[in-house]
Design brief:
about 260 residues, mainly beta, Coagulation Factor XIII, Chain A, domain 1, Immunoglobulin-like, 5-stranded antiparallel sheet, 1 helix, 20 strands, about 5% helix
Length: about 260
Amino acid sequence: MKRIFVFLFFVLFCLRSHAGVVIVEGKYQNKNIYIQNGYTDAGVGFCAYAVYVNGKLTNDEVNATAFEIDLQQFQLKYGQEVTIKIHHKDGCNPPRVLNPDALKPLPAFEVVSMKMTNDGLITWTSKNEGGPMPFIVEQFRWNKWVNVGEVQGLGKPGENSYKFQVTALHSGENKFRLKQTGYQSKYSGEVKIISSTPRCIFSLSKGTKQIDFSCGTLYEVYNYYGLVVKKGYGTRVDIANLQKGGYYVCFDNTIGELKKK
């Protein structure tokens, strides 16, 4: 009976000692990961005791205040998905990743050509992509760049071709650009067209409980504190649930102002 009690105590102690896991995920960028380790609260032994990369135990020396996770030993391909699990004991500060951005892809694309048709179809060819990262399509309206869609980048060597159909051209000049975001952001040049779409206007109806637009348009409604309270696409906006006061209405390629009574 005494032996059983001692055995159970030992198992419970081990479970309590090995209770934590720090998980790091990203894509391999030909860089290793550096970890700041620490001692247990008892001052005996180090906190981390095992590291797994994509389910495989590493042979890195973790019994130190700082150590390196050598990802090259797993013969990973550039841009390959990586999941690192750092197992650590209970009763200590968890190990800290010193360079988590090392698994974030670095945008490196170059636009070879980019053009746009009058009906809003954007086509482009890029090269030197830093991995399979999405291209974010942005449109300049209301004095800022607005995200209007995404196209998944292939990230393959050489030149890659893409297309994106814009569904909300506004009146007058339309400007678009591409963006990729990883460890940092990178932007393409701009492409522009002049749209024949009629200029849109807005009005209040139903006792200032609804905004009506003369055309289908992207819109954003802001309060005086700069917070977005309504956004979308359409010809009308229900504002019955908004508090009385002043608001800014961004639509078409302009910004209006209204008072809700």
